[in-house]
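[09:14] KT: can someone run the structure on this one? pasting the chain below
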Amino acid sequence: MVPTTLNDLLLDGLRDVYHAEKQVVKALPQLARAASNPALGRAFEDHLEDTKRQVARLEEAFQLLGATARGKRCKGMEGLLEEGKEFLESGGSDPVLDAGIIAGAQKVEHYEMATYGCLITWAETLGEVEVAHLLEQSLDEEKTADELLTHLAEEGVNALAARGDGTD
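[09:31] RB: done, structure tokens below
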């Protein structure tokens, strides 16, 4: 269905991000296991819990809008996650792998932040204040995850990758 109203566009976007978040729920445990840096692994485990709450919030948003909670294939997220999977399978040293995992995860976070930002604006424009509030909570979590990834990269992971040996 091609969206013809802003309400249609909001629902279409919610379905897209709903599918995207469900894909992220599946991917985060793999990233946590692949990370050699313990803090990075914990960050992915913690964000998994955030992402599960985001899925629940999206289900609540659908309910508030009187719509069925169902996903629409999110090709953007599929592409980002496939790119990340290929990188993980390529091998490489642990510190370089961790730096690449962070970069891939930040691409995902930025995609989600852009999506939530648009959806919030549309919900507000439509007077769907409760829906906007739910989405703002998810946007805040995505921003926090992105900031943590940046911190981990700048405070050690990138320096280890630059040395290439993983030692201090």
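[09:33] KT: thanks! The mean pLDDT is 94.
[09:34] RB: yep, looked fine to me
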